[in-house]
Design brief:
Two copies of one chain form a homodimer. With about 200 residues, the first copy, chain A, is mainly alpha-helical. Chain A folds into two domains: about 45 residues, Homeodomain-like (Arc Repressor Mutant, subunit A, Orthogonal Bundle); about 140 residues, Tetracycline Repressor, domain 2. Helix content of chain A is about 75%, strand content about 0%. Chain A has eleven helices and no strands. The radius of gyration of chain A is 20 Å and the shape is elongated. The termini of chain A are far apart. The mean pLDDT of chain A is about 95. Chains A and B meet through helix 1, helix 6, helix 7, helix 9 and helix 10 of A and helix 1, helix 6, helix 7, helix 9 and helix 10 of B. The structure holds a DNA duplex (30 and 30 nucleotides).
Chain lengths: ~200, ~200
Amino acid sequence: MAISTEEKIRDAAKRIFLEKGFGSTTTRDIAESADTNIALVNYYFHSKERLFQEIFQDSFAETFAPATRILNDDLPLEAKIYKFVDYMTDLLKKDPLLPVFVLSEMRGENTKMCEMASKMQEAGPNKFLQQLEREAEKGNIRRVDFDQVEVSLMSMVVFPFISMNVLKLKKQMSTEEFYRFVEERKKAIPEMILSYLRCREE
Amino acid sequence: MAISTEEKIRDAAKRIFLEKGFGSTTTRDIAESADTNIALVNYYFHSKERLFQEIFQDSFAETFAPATRILNDDLPLEAKIYKFVDYMTDLLKKDPLLPVFVLSEMRGENTKMCEMASKMQEAGPNKFLQQLEREAEKGNIRRVDFDQVEVSLMSMVVFPFISMNVLKLKKQMSTEEFYRFVEERKKAIPEMILSYLRCREE
DNA sequence: GCTATTTTTAAACATTTGATTAATCAACCG
DNA sequence: CGGTTGATTAATCAAATGTTTAAAAATAGC
């Protein structure tokens, strides 16, 4: 059997919501793009808002769950950092609009999306920070603010995708060149993090 | 004289557009928040779209012009990096929603906002890259891909603000703690960049 | 003080938009 | 076949939204 109507609608909705956000997307956009009519959108998903929440939830999980998972893996520090950058870069190459979508819907302190995100994230200890602590104990790396390191790591991987179109403008890159650029970051980012952690203090 | 109606509208529009984006903002939102009526919004700005374009243009310039300016300054490398992080952090502490606003309106390859942004950015040689090249020539720093360094620098400064609400959730930070966190990055970010540029190759 | 201009207001207009309805069609089951 | 259920369609509704209008109020110029 081919793809179901429900899936066609969900796929179209995801594509359009990611590109235009909740407010700039109409039910008719979605219906037309899914090659059906607006009644079916509400038939399967009750309302634009509920459909959106489903897409948002998926997108949030799709973006942050793998990141958390890898950082909690049992891997040597260096291998883990490389794996993190590698995996996240590949993920975002497939879906470059994911982070800007999720984060733009989460601006504003007390939005429904923030509340939603807070409900769906597991607490648990941060094994990556613990690992860095242990490595510092063993004298393998410098003791610095590891929260800062974690945020920097995430920043360097994700931000180029969020600012993709500005970056392409400023550096006169084509889409292919942009993808080559982030591909090269798979080496550059871990090197930067590791040199910071390993080099002698000044 | 007190603040003019036109300014009241512009201020309200900026605040609401930054928080909710173009699509989720209504003319009535703006009018009410500016303590006037919708007719005046169109009286002074002709249409919601034109008002938005004015706000977007300002916001784009406000975000990227200072960054470009500082990186083109005549300053020693280390001082310049510190100044860049310092200045940009202070700027974003005042207006944390600026980058997510600009970048979320610029997703989608061929949007009007992308076109707009491309028109308003000066070309000119990238003096920061030239400076890094010269320092490498002199043997003061390693020769690495300096485009990657520049993007990483920008990423580490800007991304925490874009992901502010996720960050506050994950790290259980209050607003004050978040601001303290980015304040500490004023040291951490330059240290990371410089250690990468200066440490021996492996 | 009177006129001309600008600013402000309330009301209305035409579309758009999210959602619903009632009827039709298709599929499955006994 | 008959009938029940689920899927689909076209039409419609009410509310929201961007914009305009025409009149009133305020301001400026002489």
